[in-house]
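Objective 1.3, modelling of assemblies. Example input:
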Amino acid sequence: MSDAYGFLAPIYQPLSRLVFGPDLLNANRAFLDLSMGKKSLILGGGDGLAYRDWDRNFIGEYWDTSPAMAKIATRNLRKSGIEVNCGSWSGKGKFDVVFLPFILDSIPDAEISELILQIYKSLNPGDLVVLSDFFPPATFIQKALQQLMITGFQLVARHQRSDLPGLASFFDPKIWRLVTQKTWRKGWIQARVYEKINDSMD
Ligand SMILES: C[S@@+](CC[C@H](N)C(=O)[O-])C[C@H]1O[C@@H](n2cnc3c(N)ncnc32)[C@H](O)[C@@H]1O
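Predicted structure (tokens):
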């Protein structure tokens, strides 16, 4: 299987730290406690470093399409009760908390809509989605860096997007309630918790 993140996987964390310091990791770790004792689904979990401290109180499934990332994640998640899977999540299973850590910014809008629908079906009212990702950059330098990253990821990791998705627009307020959020770098980086409040799409 070709691996879009094969080259990046071993250097992803050092690169992230070089450009953003601890901010991306902190965004992914901001709401991890919400899943203790619950069944979690992690989509695009990368090398799994954010979840390295999880123990057997944390159960569920991890999915990532990159074999190189999944291999590192197997080590980082070994103390937890999370099953590591390499590939695309099929949409099967029921969960209490779904983590979306810096995955949606690489996916076309139609696929994001489809994924959010699948997630909706896998949750009950009261269950949570934890989204950590890039939101609109606030300064000229951030805009320039964002564009540079988009181009770089298109070249190195075969990302399909040439812009940032408007992530908030995928969480219809009739179905999802924004419970809390944390921001870094003037809101460019955010971690958000959405609660599913409605079991009917009407
Ligand atoms: C930008 S990296 C982020 C990695 C990690 N979540 C982090 O924040 O450190 C995006 C990850 O999403 C994975 N990915 C992309 N599309 C995916 C999909 N449809 N299903 C599962 N994983 C996917 C990539 O292989 C990559 O590991």
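The longest helix spans residues 140-157.
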